[in-house]
Amino acid sequence: MRYVASLVNADKLAGRTRKYKVIFSPQKFHACEMVLEEEGVYGDVSCDEWAFSLLPLDVDLLSMELPEFFRDYFLEGDQRWINTVAQALHLLSTLYGPFPNCYGIGRCTKMSYELWRKLEEEEDGETKGRRPEIGHVFLLDRDVDFVTALCSQVVYEGLVDDTFRIKCGSVDFGPEVTSSDRSLKVLLNAEDKVFNEIRNEHFSNVFGFLSQKARNLQAQYDRRRGMDIKQMKNFVSQELKGLKQEHRLLSVHIGACESIMKKKTKQDFQELIKTEHALLEGFSIRESTSYIEEHIDRQVSPLESLRLMCLLSITENGLIPKDYRSLKTQYLQSYGPEHLLTFSNLRRAGLLTEQAPGDTLTAVESKVSKLVTDKAAGKITDAFSSLAKRSNFRAISKKLNLIPRVDGEYDLKVPRDMAYVFSGAYVPLSCRLIEQVLERRSWQGLDEVVRLLNCSELAFTDMTKEDKASSESLRLILVVFLGGCTFSEISALRFLGREKGYRFIFLTTAVTNSARLMEAMSEVKA
Amino acid sequence: MDCYTANWNPLGDSAFYRKYELYSMDWDLKEELRDCLVAAAPYGGPIALLRNPWRKEKAASVRPVLEIYSASGLPLASLLWKSGPVVSLGWSAEEELLCVQEDGVVLVYGLHGDFRRHFSMGNEVLQNRVLDARIFHTEFGSGVAILTGAHRFTLSANVGDLKLRRMPEVPGLQSAPSCWTTLCQDRAAHILLAVGPDLYLLDHAACSAVTPPGLAPGVSSFLQMAVSFTYRHLALFTDTGYIWMGTASLKEKLCEFNCNIRAPPKQMVWCSRPRSKERAVVVAWERRLMVVGDAPESIQFVLDEDSYLVPELDGVRIFSCSTHEFLHEVPVASEEIFKIASMAPGALLLEAQKEYEKESQKADEYLREIQELGQLTQAVQQCIEAAGHEHRPDMQKSLLRAASFGKCFLDRFPPDSFVRMCQDLRVLNAIRDYHIGIPLTYSQYKQLTIQVLLDRLVLRRLYPLAIQICEYLRLPEVQGVSRILAHWACYKVQQKDVSDEDVARAINQKLGDAPGVSYSDIAARAYGCGRTELAIKLLEYEPRSGEQVPLLLKMKRSKLALSKAIESGDTDLVFTVLLHLKNELNRGDFFMTLRNQPMALSLYRQFCKHQELETLKDLYNQDDNHQELGSFHIRASYAAEERIEGRVAALQTAADAFYKAKNEFAAKATEDQMRLLRLQRRLEDELGGHFVDLSLHDTVTTLVLGGHSKRAEQLARDFRIPDKRLWWLKLTALADLEDWEELEKFSKSKKSPIGYLPFVEICMKQHNKYEAKKYASRVGPEQKVKALLLVGDVAQAADVAIEHRNEAELTLVLSHCTGTADAATADKIQRARAQAQKK
Vps16 N-terminal domain spans which residues (chain B) (predicted)? Predict the structure, then answer.
């Protein structure tokens, strides 16, 4: 806002008169107007509000494109976006009828949900009596499951996101992919036939698939050899365009694959994955720790190092004090002291914590429950005070069977369960929760897990008794990720949908990945 | 039947006029109407009387009384007139009474005599006095036109949006015009005035003389002029007793009439109905009423007492001391049905129905007659329409009964027109009731619309009737019942004698959760009346907390507003309140308020981070949040400060804060950074180059790259860089320099803490196979295979692997066997494997 004001004032000084229009999206904040007023330009600009809430990125993916949501809420405790989320839910429910079954977990989820309910009540009458088209809604806070977001992604779409960064459903492939000197902007969604087939595949399958595809394509091209004029005409007018298109897409994706391969092999990707898996499964912690240390010492990549540290902390319920200190020291030495703030941020968000000595599980729990009751009394000064949030990942993993038993080689070509998105080593926690809850139609029987997630009072089920939802709509599930979701999670749920005959629709504040999470937490020099 | 048309008076061949009584007035008038200033609002509106006007030069000691009556003569208000002399009274379209005073001030009163506001018609008027004034209605609202003592006109076309327009002067005007009126044409107001034999038209630019076409000669002055309700027609009465009727544009003459009465009429008004071809003017003298039109004869009535004419859309209301009558042209439908010996289908249908009730077979005959002509539909429509124009319920009923009777013989007659007419008539009869006193005709009602009618009922505080009408017509609640309830509540809060508690409870009981009722609006009204407590109580009922906030702020209940805003979950609202609070309270109080509202606090912090960093610091200070304070200073150390000294100072503060927060680690790290900064500064001074702001690692690397190994070592010792890191660091740096000699020396300086595999890797990265091989030999046995593979020595790798008898290693080597060159090696491995398996 100050920036806009300074622009206007500069123009004023220069004696230029222009028309100014400020468009606020998704919401106009009173504070912004105040700033304009303070700067004395309020009268010079006209303001507009663009209540932009949902951007359909794909046939089953809606994004609110609020990447700042994660930092604002989970770090700063800023609740201003909750309203926006509630509005979005409201919009969906006016479009698709009331939601008969709602499940959710997490504080933010709960607040959004309650706000949405309130909105519904205020504007009742319209949606009532409409047949619900979406049978289930599942809301989930990102902080319920950091682990999944922190893992390296190995399904194609996730990898492309990790490597090239997908922005609003499109990606810029640099010269190394297009093998020309121009970079290419490619829209990645279900329209892209080639991409649609490989997006959810484990990366190791993608090459094989692409080469098969290339052979098929060649065969189709070859068909024209034996054609007479008429057939040729037909071919050119009808098929050639499609083939050309496919050809173009194919070459793009092959280029992308090669480039990914190159990058990944260079950075000892195998080692990295191995460490990650070790962390997830909870063995050879020492080696992993020293691997991370080496990683930092070699200044491989600040974000990657940070990511590994967080992963270690969450899976291990916080670092043991010695490691905590030494890793931090190493990191500061490598990347500069401003990251002291990064660490403080991570600690606040519960991503990187220190094991409190002698703190047993029950002690933490009592602390949590006290926090909850205090909050109810409205006495706590800061709901997001630096309470060491325990992740209890190990216990949850056992309870939900997140690490599949490996008997023999995991066949990535024919995935058995959702673990395939992480090479068969780990079932995404978020997706497992959704699966379990949908199966039970409530949180019943998951009390222990919910308790371990520190969400004892933050999980809810809301079912309307009347069962007028058609069976078809009950197959349709809206999954809402507050704080972003990763492509791996989307892939995993798509897989679950195929297996169980559900159709998932995703609504997320933004598509995220480990690097984006870490960036959100990092302090960078301005 | 015969007597029904007894009050019908024919005018010319084609039209009948009838006069019937609306009410017998039982107002208790102490003085004659002629002694009063009278104003009656159109559309059956109220009547205002100001007794004892000043023009009678009576003793000034008697204060006049302003009285307002309903159209049925029920008193609505009465108040002593305390202001200056009044020239004219008039009602605005919103049924507000406009009283034009001699000094040009216009006082506006409500229907119940409540003073609303006042405005002035300009300063010029102050000296010259107002001679005459008219209140007129345009499509924009109600206007006021005045004639000043200087014979100038000033008008405002809309009193709601007051814009005074001074009209141009009439040349040579010495005395007041004999008569004048306002005209509305092309969305602008004009004034037509008569001076002697001349007519002038004033618009805002010019004054032009006009002559009506076909005016009879010998006119020496115009005594009266009248414009029709719709401003379409104009009538002029001359001193020869001649009446000219034409269009208001003065372009066309419609007809003329000579009544041979030279006395100036008291009033002259148009009496016509919309979409009728008949034109007629009603002229009133003291004791005589005459309807003249395009016919050689006129209709004459005798007036027994003082009467006053009120032009309406479709007729004229005439009220006197004892009665209130309506004079209008008989509508076509009624005329067709009731005209003596009418054979119109409607008339036959009515007859048929009557016979049917008498159980006479004539009914069938009549019906057959209509049906043979194929006019039954028309007959039903006629009956329905005629019913609308009847004033007496029994006539309405008999016509409707006839219509419904006729409907039975029709297959497909859409019922809605019949149903709607029944509904409308019920509403009309209800409001025409003596106690309500709004004598609307059907055409007026349609013109006015039900919404406006409801507003008028609300204005008269007839809430129950309004609600009943809403419910009866099944109007949507938001438009109908809720709106009226809200109005009622707004009225209720103005009753000062009832306690806050009772009012709030009464309102809530009545309103309940009616949709569309905004409690905050009612509360705003209560606050407007100075009842803050009541307003707060009412706000409690407002379900949308967001709506409560702005009013609470206005009432200076900011803290309550804050908690409501937080409740609403609308962060923008919270912000609004916060900024408001910030200006209202002093800092300490403000912060204390924030402390109790975590959400507000975090929002405010966010705001400060972007806008007011200093405030943020104070916030942390207040909370003894040393951790955050430390972070704040750290940020300041690289974001805000430029000079090294300043940065070190900021870091020092940060370190102190961290100590206070018992965060020793952060404190130590900060202190280290201080040391590093100073050192870097020194390095820059001594060695040149760029050091400041590099991390420790980068600083050491830079030193190594610059060939300052000693210093690098020193730095590493000072900052306790672990050996592993140092080795990695040096290894990379030296390889980057391609200083292989130094690297070798370094590798031999002592046993490598990171092993020798990294050496191989790094060398290979620089594509120095030769150097890499050197180190490969030194790699420990468990990593030997990897190292050998890295330098590309597949054969030797295979040997080692076989020696180790390690299955995994064998596989790894095998996977590296590509091409024919390695075929032998691959073979060897396969053999070794086979052997191993045998054993």
Answer: 4-420
Q: What phi, psi does B756 have (nearest 5°)?
A: -110, -5
The minimum CA-CA distance between A366 and chain B, rounded to whole Å, is: 22
Q: What is the pLDDT, as a whole number, of residue A370?
A: 45
Structural domain includes residue B594: no
Residues B287, B251 contacting (CB under 8 angstroms) = no
Q: What is the mean pLDDT of chain B?
A: 80
Range of the domain at A227: 156-267
Q: What pLDDT was estimated at residue B317?
A: 92
By C-alpha distance, the chain B residue nearest A332 is B695
**Domain total in chain B:** 1
Q: Which residues on chain A are in Cβ contact (under 8 Å) with B665? A: 325, 328
**Residues belonging to chain B:** 839
Sort out which chain B residues have CB atoms less than 8 A from A340's CB and list them.
Answer: 631, 634, 666, 669-670
Query: Does B622 reach chain A within 8 Å, measured CB to CB?
Result: no
* Identity of the residue in B569, B595, B607 whose CB atom sits nearest the CB atom of A381: B595
Nearest to A464 by CA among A474, A449, A451, A478: A474
Query: Chain A within 8 Å of B602 (Cβ-Cβ)?
Result: yes
Q: Which of A267, A287, A316 is the last residue of a domain?
A: A267
pLDDT tens-place string over residues B499-541: 777 777 777 777 666 666 677 777 777 777 777 777 777 777 7
Task: Check CB contact of B634 with chain A, cutoff 8 Å.
Answer: yes
| Contact between A525 and B754 using a beta-carbon 8 Å cutoff | no
Q: How far is B520 from chain A (nearest CA, A)?
A: 15
Give the separation between CA B831 and CA B839, rounded to whole angstroms.
Answer: 13
Domain-embedded: residue A436: yes
Q: What is the CA radius of gyration of chain B?
A: 49
- The token pair that represents A272 in the structure block: 């990295």
Chain B residue whose CA is closest to A116: B569
pLDDT in tens, B743-796: 777 777 777 777 777 777 777 777 777 777 777 777 777 777 777 777 777 777
d(CA B130, CA B127): 9
Residue of A105, A139, A149, A113 lying closest to A446 (CA atoms):
A105
Residues A237 and A273 occupy one common structural domain: no
- pLDDT tens-place string over residues A399-412: 888 877 665 566 66
Q: Is residue B108 part of a domain?
A: yes
- Say which of B576, B598, B696 has its CB closest to residue A333: B696
Written as one string, the DSSP assignment of B315-352 is EEEEEESSEEEEEEEPPHHHHHHHSTT---HHHHHHHH
pLDDT of residue A266: 59
Q: Could you state, in chain order, the average pLDDT of each consecutive group of 10 residues for chain A (526 residues)?
A: 69 71 68 71 72 76 82 75 82 80 83 82 61 81 83 84 81 72 75 80 80 83 76 78 80 82 69 81 80 78 83 81 82 80 81 64 45 39 40 78 69 75 82 84 78 72 61 79 87 87 86 84 68
CA torsion through residues B159, B165, B169, B174, sign:
positive
Q: Assess if residue B289 is contained within a domain.
A: no
Contact: B725, A333; criterion CB under 8 Å: yes
List pLDDT tens digits, range B243-290: 998 888 888 888 888 888 888 888 999 988 877 778 889 999 888 898
A:B CB pairs within 8 Å? 130
On the question of pLDDT at B91 being above 80, the answer is: yes
* Res. B301: pLDDT tops 80: yes
Q: Which domain holds residue B130?
A: 31-211
B765 in A contact zone (CB under 8 Å): no
Residue B666 C-alpha, separation from nearest chain A C-alpha, in angstroms: 7
Q: DSSP code of A441?
A: T
How many CA atoms within 13 Å lie on the side-chain side of A523? 20
How many structural domains does chain A have? Answer: 4
Answer whether residue A513 is part of any domain.
yes
In a domain, A389, yes or no: no
Which positions in chain A touch B638 (Cβ < 8 Å)? 338, 525
| Contact status of B639 with chain A (Cβ, < 8 Å) | yes
Q: Do the interacting molecules here have an ipTM over 0.85? A: no
Residues A135 and A166 in one domain: no
